[in-house]
Amino acid sequence: MEWTGEGLLIGVSHHGESSVIAEAIVAGRGRCLGLVRGGRSMRLAPVLQPGNTIQLTWRARLEDQLGIFIVELLQARAAELIIDRLRLYLSQLICEHLRLLPERNPHDRLLGMALQLIDSPPNGAALARFELALLDDLGFGLDLSQCAVTGVTDDLTYVSPKSGRAVSRAAAAPYLDRLLPLPSFLRSRGNASPHDIADALHLTQHFLQAYVLGPRNLMSLATRTTLVALLAHKH
Question: Looking at the whole model, is its pTM more than 0.85?
Fold first, then answer.
């Protein structure tokens, strides 16, 4: 079996003395893994850097095998990322997030958002939207469309930390100490203040930990903690 596709390299691990197992999000195919023979060589090591866009040809005798990757560099980002600490941490976090996805299920929306994030100036609001989309693709999407208590669709200002559903300002009044703030920009394309961005990243972190990282016995991502602190300092 064989296919060729374009994807974002999100992870590399050593295999044997000279090979690596490469992990990429491929358009139309999702998260795919393959063995790259000689992947630790001077020729291939610069190509196999997370954050690079590569063309992959995958070959295997059976569909459920690991398979072999033949790789070709399409867009190198490693050199420009390493001189910009914020973009480097952001790229690393995006790759770590994408590695949470199940194998071989297409996630082209997330791939497009990831590439936009990596190729743009670091943006906390865009990161929060990406994390909401990640939760949605993992099956844990938040319901921010209407109030969980009254059913109204306007003046939604909080989210229940248990159900992930929005709550209106009026309905939230008796329970403010138990709810998470819902920044308005997450429901629209409006501007976001530094305070709004901090609230949004706290919101997505809560549900990533509760629904994704915790059940897998994973700790909070250190890269994310550092990145959020850097973004706050920048603002």
Answer: yes
